UniProtKB/TrEMBL annotation:
It catalyses: [protein]-peptidylproline (omega=180) = [protein]-peptidylproline (omega=0). Coiled coil: none annotated. PPIases accelerate the folding of proteins. It catalyzes the cis-trans isomerization of proline imidic peptide bonds in oligopeptides. Belongs to the cyclophilin-type PPIase family. It is an enzyme of class 5 (isomerase). Keywords: Isomerase, Membrane, Rotamase, Transmembrane, Transmembrane helix. The chain crosses the membrane at residues 34-55. This is Peptidyl-prolyl cis-trans isomerase. Residues 1-19 have a biased composition (Basic and acidic residues). Residues 129-276 form the PPIase cyclophilin-type domain.
Length: 281
């Protein structure tokens, strides 16, 4: 091959390489590409930040226990009286009155000497009829003394029975003028006459309390079926029994609850007044 032919072949190879080779990237072009990448990243980050959270709070209300010693639960009676959502009147009942604007408060626990060794009869006038209770001052003198005091001062006039339990534990709880389950008369006292086996027969009148054994105050409950309650912490004071009107409690219980897991009875009942007399032998 002549030198002229070699030069011609070399020239053709060079031309072919030039056709397939990528053009070099200039500084300006490179800067544009880098800027484009950065801008894209910024836009993605901004979009993520701008998206609203759709996952709700992980905080959920603690489940309410069914025992009368549970943490307070909201009642349903409205501050202006009448029926709350989901409630209706049972036969023979009238609409609940408005809650007390300012429930009476005291600071001194009444002397148990006023009730010790005595038996009393309490008539509880309600929006669904009268409940008659027999109070045992011999077995629960402090509790009965407190009940006498609160009745005399009109502490419960009026107040709703804010809590009903219908599964496992069968009680109607009353005695809080605020209707929230958090009210107390301003004092507290300890447990008396609590059954060691935790058995509460139908028609028993007992004190409700928190986990504090000295938190007995103004709230009490009536068992409309035999109920087994925990004995941890000392149990619950039995201080009497229903002698008349338990059919009224049965009627309220039969109406059930406004919502599952909630304490509000479908059929409301409120205390209007309480009068107490000593039972003579």
């Amino acid at each position: 091959m002549t030198k002229e032919q070699e030069r011609a072949r070399a020239r053709r190879r060079h031309e072919e390489q030039q056709k397939t080779a990528k053009p070099p990237v200039g500084d300006a072009t490179r800067d544009k590409q880098v800027f484009g990448v950065i801008l894209a990243v910024i836009l993605v980050i901004a979009a993520v930040i701008a998206v609203p959270k759709i996952v709700g709070s992980s905080d959920t209300p603690s489940a309410a226990s069914t025992a009368p010693a549970t943490q307070p639960t909201d009642g349903a009676t409205t501050s202006s009286g009448g029926l709350a959502a989901g409630q209706k009147l049972a036969a023979g009942c009238t609409a609940p009155p408005a809650l007390q604007a300012k429930p009476k408060q005291q600071t001194t626990v009444p002397s148990k000497a006023t009730a010790a060794g005595k038996t009393f009869v309490a008539t509880v006038k309600t929006t669904c009829g009268d409940l008659v209770l027999e109070l045992d001052g011999a077995k629960a003198p402090q509790t009965v003394a407190s009940f006498l005091n609160l009745a005399k001062t009109g502490y419960w006039a009026p107040s709703p029975c804010h809590r009903l339990t219908t599964e496992g534990i069968y009680v109607l709880q009353c005695g809080d003028p605020t209707g929230t389950g958090q009210g107390d008369p301003g004092y507290g006292f300890g447990i008396e006459n609590a059954p060691k086996d935790g058995r509460y027969p139908r028609g028993v009148l007992a004190m409700a309390r928190t986990q504090d054994p000295n938190s007995n105050g103004g709230q009490f409950f009536i068992t409309y079926k035999e109920t087994q309650l925990p004995t941890d912490g000392g149990g619950y004071t039995i201080f009497g029994k229903v002698t008349k009107g338990l059919d009224i409690v049965d009627k309220i219980a039969a109406g059930g609850l406004v919502a599952a897991g909630e304490p509000t009875p479908v059929n409301p009942i409120s205390i209007l007044s309480v009068t107490v007399t000593e039972k003579k032998a």
